[in-house]
Description:
This protein has about 500 residues and is α/β, with parallel strands linked by helices. It contains twelve helices and 20 strands. Strands 1, 2, 3, 8, 9, 10, 11 and 20 form an eight-stranded mixed β-sheet that branches. Strands 6, 12, 13, 14, 15, 18 and 19 form a seven-stranded antiparallel β-sheet that branches.
Amino acid sequence: MSHIAFQPKGRAIEVEADYVVVGSGAGGATAAVTLARGGAKVALVEAGAWRDPQDYPGSTYGAMRDLFDDWGSTITRGRAFWPVVQARTVGGTTVINCAICVRTPDDIFEQWDRERGVGGPRMAKEVGRIQDEIERELCAEVVPEAAAGRSNILAMKGARAMGYDSHAMTRYVKGCVGSGQCLQGCSSLRKQSTNLNYIPEVLERGGDVISSAPVKRILFEGRRAAGVSGRFSHPVTRARGADFRVRARKAVVVAASATHSPALLMRSGVKSPALGKFFRAHPGTGIFGCYDDPVDMNIGATQGWASTAFRTDPGLKLETLSIPLEMVAGRLPGGGDLLMERLREYRHIAMWVHAVRAETAGTVSNGWFDKPVVRYTLNRADMERFRKGMALVARTHFAAGAKAIVPGVYGLPYKLGPDEVRLLEEGPLDPRCYVAILSHLFGGCAMGRDPTISVCDGRGRAYGYEGLVIADASVIPTNLGVNPQHTIMALARLFSEELLGD
Ligand SMILES: Cc1cc2nc3c(=O)[nH]c(=O)nc-3n(C[C@H](O)[C@H](O)[C@H](O)COP(=O)(O)OP(=O)(O)OC[C@H]3O[C@@H](n4cnc5c(N)ncnc54)[C@H](O)[C@@H]3O)c2cc1C
Ligand code: SF4
């Protein structure tokens, strides 16, 4: 077992394993541990550095520097520049996410079956079995009451008053203490990101973890994926280090995310008419509710409340999301006395968000310096859903007792009262007027039975190649309308079990 961290320029590093897994996030870590449990020798190659949770920076900008992919600087190219947020660290985006654990809805397997010839009841059953296992392994639990925090409690009250279903979230968290810091990494080791469990287990089982090691390309012998190569990148300065080459005796498993996996396949020369297509997301935004009494949203679980009541009509998910002062400040217009006055309200603000189950499909390609280029502009129907989501969140705030909301929409007043929600319903349809982000990403290497519209089959095996499996969010051919980590992990395990059986 060994962890090979950044190596300065010099002799090239050579490693050999049965399986090489690229990327250590939700998909990669699950694939790696499954293969290692099956007795295989695994090499897990990760672009980001291994960070000790005690050394997580604790601030938003520190997290962007140390944990986020390129400081969170990947943005959509299209009508609006919206951030495409992911992590680049050992553990991938599980380190900076909120660990919300939602089972794959049954209608998704039906949809995949109908539209892509994969999924169906058999996959639903297998994914269900695996999700049971993962829930046990990663200690999935409902947010404890003591860690709920006032923002989550208020949201529950608002939904109840509005008469729609909502619930306290289930998350992969062991005894949350409600520090409200999931997005900066859980330094109290409660959140079960993969750097705390699956990745150490890969090492214990004799695998190698190679960090600060962005893979440049997949190596092929004929049509067989035979390994990967790249060059170490310093975790702080990004200075180039030694070259590395990791040989795969059996297969290369690509799990570098919905943006990086298609980009890596493209620069490795993989040919598929579907590569980089069918990129989808759940774009969303937050609305601040202003309450008379302090909410102190950073006390309590970062995310603790959700509603899926609008998942199919109009296609939305609602959640609480507590953000720290520096992120709130970044969304407040004004300066000097005005800004100080607005900031004084911070303790009285709760932020709740909506995520649109958007039908819009975009593309991913490989850009300069191996940076993925995401082209994505929400279509009109999705923008209408987006507006509806904002109005729904605003109404929930008012039903919970908010005196005003801060919509953060270009062209609208700074604050709106309960009688002004229609301004959101009639708000602009131009995406540039909204501060949105994309955090749930899908596709780019979509799975399916037809190779003209699919990069891989329903077991992640790339069409036209041997020993090349894709096992992350990029294989998901549709959006889900729920948080994706549980689905990604289950698919990665399913594909890895299949590989072990080959
Ligand atoms: C802020 C935020 C909050 C979220 N909250 C939740 C939540 O609560 N619940 C939920 O279900 N989902 C959540 N998500 C989404 C979820 O985290 C992702 O869908 C999931 O982690 C994606 O898994 P993945 O394996 O595809 O990619 P990732 O987890 O992003 O892992 C990909 C890994 O590959 C590495 N990599 C990339 N390129 C290379 C390369 N060339 N060589 C080597 N390594 C490479 C990356 O550094 C990264 O570590 C959230 C996302 C964000 C951004
Ligand atoms: S709220 Fe705090 S303790 Fe709970 S999982 Fe998130 S970071 Fe960890």
